[in-house]
Backbone:
């Protein structure tokens, strides 16, 4: 299967509306997880990947960039506004994906977050992650981790929010990170958001 996304900014109406709603960064920089995060930055892009079963890819001699152990989807749940996600809905989505994959939460060393660079959205997203991992640890009777061990990032701080291509951009970033054994930094992260703990 071919999977991917495309985002082109062809008309100014949405940008004007988002700006009037206070959703866009005033200086045109996406500051994911930063104290000065003030909105997202619209971006254009195209991303495509080829999906095959592992046995078929191996039989065909393909270079395998990554393995998808599980997928999950849900509705964002009841929320106050478009820019204020529901952490419980995010928690349930993560639990569904990790349970289905059978992954030990201690093995997760990096999370590619949505990380839009909003002062409210980023902390809510990390709260959803914390709620999910607390539940996973409890289910497996694993003692609470005292020392942080998992990195978090968002490609949006590097290339902006590609909207309809945002998901594929994150997937490609993770695949390239695995290939090059390097996590790109968050160039706009100067002072971590005080509500992201």
Residues:
């Amino acid at each position: 299967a071919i999977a991917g996304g495309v985002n082109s900014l062809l008309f100014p109406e949405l940008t004007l509306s988002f700006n009037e709603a206070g959703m866009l960064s005033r200086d045109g920089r996406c500051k994911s997880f930063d104290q000065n995060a003030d909105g997202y930055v619209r971006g254009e892009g195209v991303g495509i990947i080829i999906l095959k079963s592992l046995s078929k890819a191996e039989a065909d001699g393909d270079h395998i960039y990554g393995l998808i152990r599980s997928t999950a989807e849900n509705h964002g749940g009841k929320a106050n506004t478009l820019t204020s996600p529901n952490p419980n809905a995010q928690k349930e989505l993560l639990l569904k994906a990790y349970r289905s994959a059978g992954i030990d939460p201690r093995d997760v060393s990096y999370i590619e977050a949505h990380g839009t660079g909003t002062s409210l959205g980023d902390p809510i997203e990390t709260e959803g992650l914390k709620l999910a991992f607390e539940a996973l640890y409890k289910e497996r009777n694993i003692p609470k981790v005292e020392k942080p061990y998992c990195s978090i990032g968002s490609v949006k701080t590097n290339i902006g929010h590609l909207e309809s291509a945002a998901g594929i951009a994150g997937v490609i970033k993770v695949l390239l990170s695995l290939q090059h054994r390097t996590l790109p930094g968050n160039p706009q992260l100067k002072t971590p958001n005080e509500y992201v703990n």
Q: What stands out?
A: The mean pLDDT is 92. The first strand starts at residue 2 and ends at 7. Residues 121-139 form the longest helix (19 residues).
